[in-house]
Each structure stands twice: as C-alpha cells, then as structure tokens.
Amino acid sequence: xxxxxxxxxxxxxxxxxxxxxxxxxxxxxxxxxxxxxxxxxxxxxxxxxxxxxxxxxxxxxxxxxxxxxxxxxxxxxxxxxxxxxxxxxxxxxxxxxxxxxxxxxxxxxxxxxxxxxxxxxxxxxxxxxxxxxxxxxxxxxxxxxxxxxxxxxxxxxxxxxxxxxxxxxxxxxxxxxxxxxxxxxxxxxxxxxxxxxxxxxxxxxxxxxxxxxxxxxxxxxxxxxxxxxxxxxxxxxxxxxxxxxxxxxxxxxxxxxxxxxxxxxxxxxxxxxxxxxxxxxxxxxxxxxxxxxxxxxxxxxxxxxxxxxxxxxxxxxxxxxxxxxxxxxxxxxxxxxxxxxxxxxxxxxxxxxxxxxxxxxxxxxxxxxxxx
Amino acid sequence: xxxxxxxxxxxxxxxxxxxxxxxxxxxxxxxxxxxxxxxxxxxxxxxxxxxxxxxxxxxxxxxxxxxxxxxxxxxxxxxxxxxxxxxxxxxxx
Lengths: 372, 93
Known about the structure:
The complex is a heterodimer of chains A (about 375) and B (about 90). Chain A is α/β, with parallel strands linked by helices. Helices cover about 35% and strands about 10% of the residues of chain A. Chain A starts with a helix and ends in a 16-residue tail after the last helix. Chain B contains 3 helices and 5 strands; from the N terminus they run E-E-E-E-H-H-H-E. In chain B, the strands form 2 sheets. Chain B has a 3-stranded antiparallel beta sheet with strand order 2-3-4. A two-stranded antiparallel sheet of chain B has the order 1-5. In chain B, a hairpin with a 6-residue loop joins strand 2 and strand 3 (about 25-30). Chain B is globular, with a radius of gyration of 13 Å. The interface of A and B includes residues 115, 183, 224, 225 and 228 of A.
C-alpha cells in the first residue's frame, strides 16, 4: 500500500501516555519502565513537553496520562497540568502517591487535573511496603487518597496482581471502595522488562489465576454501581491474546522522558525498530509516517495463523513485544494465543516459574527496579 | 429507580468535550471516552446539577415536539446506565 493510501486509513490517536520522568521513590519489581531508565539529564524540558501536548491535542488526542516514574518528581508538574487542560486534554495523573499530598495536590487540582490514579501494592502496609521497596509508602498513599476524594476528584486504585497478592483481590476491591475510589484496575503483571526479570517471584499459580478471576466477577456483582472494576487478565494462562494497546499505532502513543515516541511502553525491546524523537520530529509526522508506527499497523504485516484468523481485527495478533521475547520474531503470533506453536512453551514457562518457588509473599526476594 | 424529582449531576472529573478532530461530542471520564450520539448529547447538555429529571424531560419533549412518555423512559434509562458506571451522580430531593 502506498504511504498516501495507508495514511487515509490511519485514525488519530485517543490517548497519550507521557512518561515525564523515570525517577521514582518506589522500586516495584514489576515496574513497566524499561530496564535502561532515562536519567534526569536526558529529560525533556518544560517547553518541549508543552509543545508535545499542544501537538497531541491538535492530532486528536483527547486524554493524556501524566506518568513516570513519579511524574510529580518534576518541579514543572503543575505548569504542565495547567497547559494540558488549556489545550483541551482530559488530564490524568498516574502516581506512586509519595510526596504529592498537601499543597502539591491542591495546586494540581486548581490547575485543572481531572483524575488521579494511585498505585497500591497491597491492602495492608506490611506486604505493600515490601513490594514497593519503601517502608512507610502505603501510609503516604492512604493520606493522598483521602485528600483526592476530599477534593471530589475521581480516584482510581491501580492494583498490580502477582503471586504475593493474587489471593487478596476481594480485599483489594473492598479496600478501594472504602477509600472512596470510583474505579479500580485489577491488572495482572505483564512480563516485560523488570517484571520479566522477576517472573519466577511474581508468576501466580493456575489456582490463583482461577480464584482471582472469580473474585473479580463476584466483586463486580457485589459492588455494582459503587465501583467500576477494570481487569487485565494474566495472559500466560489465556487462550487468546490481549489486544495489546488496542492495536499497534491505532489508539495510543507513548512519549519517554527523553522524548522517544513509542506505540507502547515496552516497544523499545524490539531492536530492529528505530523510534523517532519529539526533539526532531512532530507528533503528526511520527504518528502518520514513521516506519516504527507503520511496522505493525493494520493486518498486512501478519503471517499465519493470524492472517486468516477471524479475530485478527479484534486482538491484532496480541503483543509484538511478547511475540519477540518468546519466539524471536516480533511479527509472530503472540504465544498467549493457543493457536501459536509456542503456546505450550509459554504455559510450561509459567508452570516452571511457579513450581520453583513456594508462594510466600513476605519471604520473596525481588530484584527491585533501580538505575543500572 | 430514578424519580421525576431526581437531580442528575456530572461529578468532578466527568465532562462533555467537543471532539474537533473527529466531529461530535464525547463524555470524558477516567480511562473512558464515550462518543455521544445527538440524543445523548441533548440530554447531557441539560444536566447542570440543578435541573430535575422532570425538567429535562419537559424541555426535550417541548424542544423536539416528541412523545413525553417515550422520552421520559429513554432519559431515565440512559441516566441510570451512566450512574451505574459512576459517570453521573443522582440526588433525590
């Protein structure tokens, strides 16, 4: 297909995830940041971020997710938030909850912040602080959550699920309801980067996956109308892959602290792709014309069994990064799909990870996220 | 169930947005973008935190010269659906 013909089919993106910094007071072993973290000296300056958000709104982005690392570690976070709102963007803060409560949150709310999402590592301080790698972090999150709901801002509890807490999904939902959250994400760990390093310590057992899925369904019924539960299933045990980021270059884009633009936060693990930088190229140019965004767009790049599959426009063959990590080919079917010849190997990996380590959350040794 | 006197309101963090890139209006919410059809937009334009459901239905029936009974049940079902998703607050006077 010619570039011009392809472009006519490219819809504008809906969302932009801005990793404003990779600096973070926490050290969660499943951090979604890449293993090679961007250092402060490489971060975009305030003016460049503002230009990026203006270009995003122009391009058709409606929601911006200010994330990190810890986005409020940047001194310009209030200025950036106000700019996003002025550009007409729905502005979401994804935070660890550390060093945000008090005047900073008041200023963010006054700047027009729309929504706050706080990561919680558990429903009780002991196990939660063990996972975050920082004593006292859970208590600080509770303090921020109370201020968020006190201001009337919508609160989402972001709960990452792994072997250490997969038995406590019901308690996590109740915890979120008691905090006054309107929404909770029950997100099983996705195994890239830091989480892949820690896979043996994080992988839930098949029994845990089953019971946590049932717990979500029960909680949806028990708390209907009080909290919205969005669940990300653990795809090592799935039959069909997840529609990763809603399709490559279809709905969203990601900007790293140093300005690289990616179709998803793990895309840099695909070594043959070159990702453009907002310092040199406009978001419009990157979204519509870059080789990286066009690489796995649509269905033309697919091989069998995806190419003739009736779900190819539903799950887009799953995740390119996981396909590469497990099969050596980023254009292969995601092995989370039972139609992939690598599916049995993926299940075996999960079972091996579980068999080798006893499920014992407080004794689990993690390889914590850090600057390498 | 929603009563005639119920007052619907969009909570903080839920707002109408004109989608200039694609046309039309959306309801913006945490991790949700709801594309509104013209009817939904006409209903939500009238949700201001002070108007009751009966007032909104009266206004719609008058503006579009349509059957009030039908509008009443459609509007109540739509508002209840949004409230169930935590996208709308309902206050009974």
